[in-house]
Amino acid sequence: MLIASNLGLATIKKNIVVKAPDWFYVPQVQPLAEGIIRRSYTPNTDGAAVAIVMEFLSEADGGELSLRATPPYGKFYFYEQILQGPTYITYDPYEATVEVRYLQDGGYVLHSANAQGRVWIPQLELYLGIWFGERLGQTMNWLRGWDNSDNLLLWSSEQAQQQRQRAERLAAKLRALGIDPDLPD
């Protein structure tokens, strides 16, 4: 699989068209020779078609939602009509909104969120939504994933913190039993 951020995504139809989405997902890719760095991705040449494209909305007027049908193509038009990506996600961290569109009958259709404001992403088998909290010293709205049982999927730093807390609790229990967990065997 390939999960890429700001990597050139190219299509070859009549002309080569390249966009660099904020994030995209491809379920199967051709392996690269050792030492080769992937500088772009061309669907059906380098592997499977792109399954998901995500853009973080910027201050540029209509940039990520541009329908411009002539070169230079608008991003929305490119993903929908040229790339024909099955899922297009836009995330606005300032307005705390995430919109998911699925390609149906040649065009994107906006998919409604559930009662918790999350949208199911079948290719990833998770719900995507907004979570307000602190990460990397910033308190703000973050795009997060939840599993099918409504459990927040943890970042690696959160998983590591959980493991440290478990280890500390176990060490405290061992000490209560008179065992020093810090002594070598």
Question: Any overview of this molecule?
Answer:
With 185 residues, the chain is of the alpha+beta class. The chain folds into two domains: 122 residues, no CATH class; 29 residues. Helices cover 16% and strands 35% of the residues. A six-stranded mixed sheet has the order 1-4-6-7-8-9. A three-stranded mixed sheet has the order 3-2-5, covered by helices on one side.
Question: Going across the major beta sheet, what is the strand order?
Answer: 1-4-6-7-8-9
Report the biggest beta sheet as strand number plus sense, adding barrel if it closes.
6 strands, mixed
Low-pLDDT ranges: none
- N-to-C SSE series? EEEEEEHEEEEEEH
Given the helix and strand composition, which structural class is it? alpha+beta
Determine the number of helices (DSSP H or I, runs of at least 4 residues): 2
Our estimate of the beta-strand percent is 25-35%
- Helical content (DSSP H or I, runs of 4+): 10-25%
Principal-axes geometry comes out as elongated
- What does the radius of gyration come to? 21 Å
Cα(first) to Cα(last) distance is: 43 Å
Give a short synopsis of this structure.
The chain has helices spanning 75-83, 156-176; strands spanning 2-4, 8-12, 16-19, 23-26, 40-41, 52-56, 87-92, 97-104, 107-111, 119-121, 126-135, 138-146. The protein is α+β, with helices and mostly antiparallel strands and 185 residues long. It has two domains: 2-123, no CATH class; 157-185.
